[in-house]
Amino acid sequence: MITLQNVTKTVQSGADALTILNDVTLEIPDGQFVSITGASGSGKSTLLGLIAGLDAPTSGAILIDNENITDMNEDGLATLRSEKIGFIFQSFHLIPSLTAFENVLIPMEILGLKDAKQRAKDLLEAVELTNRGHHYPTELSGGEQQRVAIARAFANQPKILLADEPTGNLDSKTGNHIFDLMTDLHDRHNVSLVLVTHDQNLADKSQRQIILKDGKVISDNYNNFGASEENLSTDEHG
Amino acid sequence: MKFIFNLTFREIRSSWRRLLFFFLCIAIGVGSVVALRSLIQNLAQAVGGDARALMTADLEIISTNDFSPTEISKIEEIINKSSIVEARNEAITASAMSRPVDKANENFSIVELKGIESPFPLVGNFTLENGKLFDFKLLENRGAVVAPILLEDLNLKVGDKIRIGEVEFEIRAAFESEPGDSGGFRLGPRVFVEKKAFDEAGLTGNRGRLTRRILYRTSENPTALVKQLRDNLQGTILRVRSYRESQERLGEQFARTENYLSLTGLLILVLGGVGVWNVARVFVEQKRKSVAVLKCLGASGTRIITVYLLQILTLGFIGSLFGVLLAQLTLWAAQSYFGAELPPEMSYAVHFSTAFQGVLLGVLISFLFSALPLLQVRNIKPNLLLRDENNKNLRRLDWTKTIFTIISVGGLLGLAVWQAGSLIVGAFFLVGLGLTSVILYFAAWILTLLLKKVKNLGSFSLSQAINSLYRPGNQTRIILLAVGLGAFVVLSVQFLQSNLVREFDFTRNQTLPSLFFIDIQKSQIGELQRIVTKATGEEAQAIPTIRARIAYINGEPINFQSPEVRQEQGRIGREFAVTYRPNLDENETVIAGNWWNEVSDVPEVSVEESMSKDLGVTIGDSITFDVSGRKITARVASIRDIDLRNTRTAFVFVFAPNVLQDAPQTFVATVIKKLPETERARLQRDVIDQFPNIQIFDVADIVAAVQKLINNFVLAISFVGGFVILSGILILIGSVALTKSQRIYENAVLKTLGAKRKTLAAILFTEYGLLGLLAGIIGTGFAVLLSFAVSKYILDIEWEFNLTITLAGILITTALVMIIGAIASFDVLFRKPLATLRSQ
Q1: pLDDT for B223-271, tens place per residue?
Q2: Alpha-carbon span A98 to A138, nearest angstrom
Q3: In this complex, do B300 and A106 lie within 8 Å of one another by their Cβ atoms?
C-alpha cells in the first residue's frame, strides 16, 4: 500500500520558491494499476519520484506498507527500492557500460540473490530478448532498451512498479507492445503499477486515473472496467 | 561483496579506454620515480657497493709526500703488533705525459700513471682484455698495462712502446676492468707500471699531485686498527682510511642523492596525481546517470563509491606496473645514451624492492587524488533521472570531504617524507610545491584576467576563444599551472646551461691561457721559453709554485686524524699550490688589509676571500704551512678577491717575495695565444720530446670535457623535465575531456546559428594557442627568474638574458598546447548538431 499524506514539494527557482506538488493526499492499494496524467509541469514525475524515495517532500508524509519513508536516510531508501520498488523511465536509463543481461542482473546482485543469472535469463525471455542479452544498450533499438528496462524493473520482484512515460520515446506500435508487456507482467505478478503518461489511450486502460494540475489532484476516478469489487470498495474519492 | 566485484569488473571492461589517461598519468609518475631511484641505486652499487674492491685493500694510508722514516716507524709499530694484517703493498699515482716511442707516430696523451707492487690488487679482481687475470710479471722489466682507450688515442697496439717521463715502457696488455675505478673524472687514461719503474721515470722528484699509498689486506674488520694508527700518527699529515668508512660515506651520499632524486620523481607523480584528480572528476561527471540508476535500483552510495574506488585502484595498480616497465625502458635508454660515462659494471635492471615501492606509491597516489572527486558520488541524487537539475550540490564541501582533504594532504606529506627519507625535507618539498603552485596559479589568474580585457579588441574567433577559457567548469588555470610548471623546469635548465657553457667558454676570456705547462724545473725555464716564443711569438712567464699544506692556524694545529678535518680534507686539508710575488695581479683586488709594498721582516701571506672564510682567518692572524716537512708561519697581510672570469692563474695563497724563494719549487708557464689545433699539438710534442717531466694541460680539452659534463647533466635534467611536461600534457588532455560535452553543445548551437566549421576550428586553435601562450609566458618568465637567482646567488656566475631560448620556449609551449589541445577536441567539429541538441 502506498500512502501520501498532505505531501507538498517546493523547489527554489532562482529567487522564487516554486510549488510542484501542493498538499497531495492519496492511497494506492496493493495490486492496483493507477495512471497519472496532467499537463507538463503539473507534478506527475515529481510525485512518482517521491513515491520511489528518489527525493524527499518539503512537507507531508509518504508511507510504503505503513512505513514512513520520509524520515529514511539515503541508504535506507536505497534498501527500500531494492526490495520493494521497480522503476521504468521514459529514456530507459540503462547503464551504458553493461550488457542487457548485466543490466537486468544488477538489482538481483544488489540484493545478493543466488539464482540471479537464471532469473535474468527468464526475465529477458519474458520480454522476448533472449538473443540480445550480450548486447550493450547502444546496440539496441529504443523498444528493445525499454524491454530490458522492464525486465530490470521486475528483477527484484517488486511490490510496486513505477513507470514514468515508458512509451514516450517510442513509436506508437512499439509503445503499445511495451504497454502490453507491462500490464501483462502486472497482472501476472500482482504488483501495484503507477503509470505516468501523456497518452490518454493508455490512461484509459488503467483501473484508476488521477489527473494533476499545478501540483494538485483535480480528478481521481476509477475506470468502469477491469476494477475488481475489492478495489472499488477501497475507493474513497469516488 | 559479489555485487561490488562483479560491477567493478564490468566497469573496468567498459571504461578502461576512458581511464587510459589516468593510467598513463600514474604510469609516467611511477616510471620516473622507479627509474630515478633504480639509476642511483645501481650507480651506488657499481661505485660504492664494493668499497673494498674500490680501495683494492681493506685499509690505506695516504700521503702526498714521501713517507718519512719516522712515519714509517710509527706505522710499523702498530702494524707489526696487529695479528689481522695479511698482506701489504705500496702504490704511487701521478699524472704524466706519454707519447709513442715511434717518432713517426705524432700522437700524445696525458695519462694517470700508477706504480704498483706485487701482490696487486690485495682485494678484488684485475681482468685483462683477453679475459685473463692480471699477472704482475707483465710489468716486470718496464712493462705497462694500459686502458684500451689509450691504445685508441695514441693509435698503438699491444707490443708497442710508449715513453712516459724518462722511461720507455712496452705495452704488454690492455685491461678490461680496472680495480679501484670509480668512474669519476679523470685527466687521462690509466697506465699501470711497476712502482720501481715509476721512480726511475723521474716523475717522483720535486713535483706535486703525487699520491703515495700503503695498502693492507686484513683478515678481520680493520676499524680498531685504523683507530690505533690514527692515534699513533697524531701530528702528521698522513690520512688513514678503511674501506668501511668509505663505504659508509659513499652509502650516505648515495642515499641522500637517491632521496632527492626520488622527490623529483615524486613531483612528477604528484603532477600525475593532478591528472588523476582531473580524470576522476570527468569520470564522476560522466557516470552521474549510471550512479543515479544504481541508486534508483537500490545500491547505496558507499557501495557505489567502493566500486569506483576499486576500479581506480585496479587501474592504478596496472598503471604502476606499466610504470615499472617504463622505468626499465628508461634505464635501457640511459644505458645507450650515458653508458660510456657510467661505470662499466653498472647494472641497468630495476630491483624488485624499488619496483614494489613504485607500485605502492602509484596505488597510494591513485587513492589520495581520486578519493575526493569520487566522494561526489554521494551527492548524486537518483531523482536526476526524472529531472536533471544542475550540479550545484556536487562540489559542496561537507565534513566528510573536509576530513578526506586533510587525509589526502596528510597522506601526501607522508609520501613526501617517505621518499625524502626526512621529515623536514619532505615537509619543505610539499610546502615548496604548494608555494610554487600558488605563485604559478596566481600568475595564471592575473594573465587570464588581462586576457579578458582584450576580449573585445579582436575578431569573433578571438573573443569566442577567450570566452571558452572562462566557460563554467573551465580548466584554464589548472592547465596553465601544470604545463607552465613543466615548461618552467625544462627552460630553467636550458637557461642555466647557456650561462654555464658561456662561463666556461674560454674564447670569451682573452686572458685565460690556452695551454698550461707545469712541473717545470728551474733549469728548464730558459729552453722552454725559447720553444714557446718560437711557436707563439709570446714570451712565456714562469711562475714559481711550491706545494704546501696548512698545519696550524693561529698556533692551533690542524689535527688531520680528527673526523671533522678528514671530512673537510678536500677543501682545507689538501695540498695547495702556492706562489710568491711582489705585485698584485690585474684580476685581483685587495678587499681587506694591505698588499705588501716593501719587504717585511715577518713572513706575510695573502689569502683568497672564500678560503679566508673557510679557515676563519682575518688580517693579522697567522697560518703555519708545511712545506716539504718544514714549517713556515706567515701573517695574513691581505685578503684578495680573484676575478675568475678574467684570470690567468688563480692562487689561493700568495706569499711575499722573501719567504719561499729558497723552498723547493717548480714553475708554471702559460700560453695565452689561441693557436690552431695542429700548431698547439706540435708545440706540445716539442715540449714533451725535450722535457718529458713537464705536464701540459690543453685548456680546450678541459673545456670540452667540462662542456660534455654540463651537456650530460642538462640532458639528464631535461629528461626529467620532459617527464614533467608529459604529465602536464596528460593533464591538458584530461582537462579537454572534462569540458568536452560543453564544447560539443556550444559547437552545436554555433553551427545551428550559422558558424562554419572553419570558424569553429579557428576558435579551437585560438583557444589552445592562447592557453599555450600563457603557459609559455608563465613557464619562461619564472625560468628566467630562477636561472638569474641560481646564477647570481648559488653558482656565482655572470647571468645573461638569452632571447633565443625565451622566444623558443614560449613558441614551443604555445605550439605544443595548441596542437595537442586541438587534436584532443578535433572530433567535436565533425559532430552533427541535431543529434547533440536533441540529446540535451
Answers
A1: 888 888 888 887 777 888 888 877 777 777 777 777 767 777 777 777 7
A2: 10
A3: no
- β-strands B666-671, B588-593 pairing: unpaired
Q: Which of B290, B296, B378 sits opposite A97 (nearest CB)?
A: B290
> Kindly report the CA angle at B664 between B634 and B599, in degrees rounded to 5?
40
ipTM: 0.74
Write B824-832 long-range contacts (CB < 8 A, 24+).
B824/B732, B824/B733, B824/B736, B824/B737, B825/B736, B825/B740, B825/B743, B825/B764, B826/B764, B828/B740, B828/B743, B828/B744, B828/B747, B828/B764, B829/B747, B829/B757, B829/B760, B829/B761, B829/B764, B830/B757, B831/B744, B831/B747, B831/B748
CA distance linking residue B692 with residue B98, whole number of Å: 8
d(CA B494, CA B471): 35
Q: Using alpha carbons only, how large is chain A's radius of gyration in Å? A: 18
Written as one letter, the residue type at B209 is R
- CA B236/CA B69 separation, integer angstroms: 12
Give B456's pLDDT tier (boundaries 50, 70, 90): low
Using CB atoms, which residue from A102, A107, A152 is nearest to B10? A102
Shortest Cα distance, chain A CAs vs residue B756, angstroms: 30
Q: Which of B10, B386, B387 sits opposite A97 (nearest CB)?
A: B10
Q: Tens digit of pLDDT for each residue in B52-95?
A: 777 788 888 888 777 888 888 888 888 888 888 888 888 888 88
Least Cα separation, residue B839 to chain A (angstroms):
10
Question: pLDDT tens, A200-217?
Answer: 888 999 999 999 999 999
Q: Which residues of A touch B297 (CB under 8 A)?
A: 81-82, 87, 106-107, 110, 152, 156
Is the pLDDT assigned to residue B115 strictly greater than 70? yes
Chain A residue with CA closest to B293: the answer is: A93
Grid cell listed for B147? 686502458
Mutate to test the interface with A, among B12, B293, B392 (most CBs of A within 10 A): B293
Question: Strand B127-128 relative to strand A216-222: parallel, antiparallel, unpaired?
Answer: unpaired
Which residues in chain A are contacts of B3 at CB distance < 8 A? 106, 109-110, 112
Interface test with A, best of B5, B386, B389, B398 (most A CBs within 10 A): B386
Residue numbers in B near A111 (CB within 8 A) = 298
Bridge partners of residue B669, in order along the sequence: B517, B542
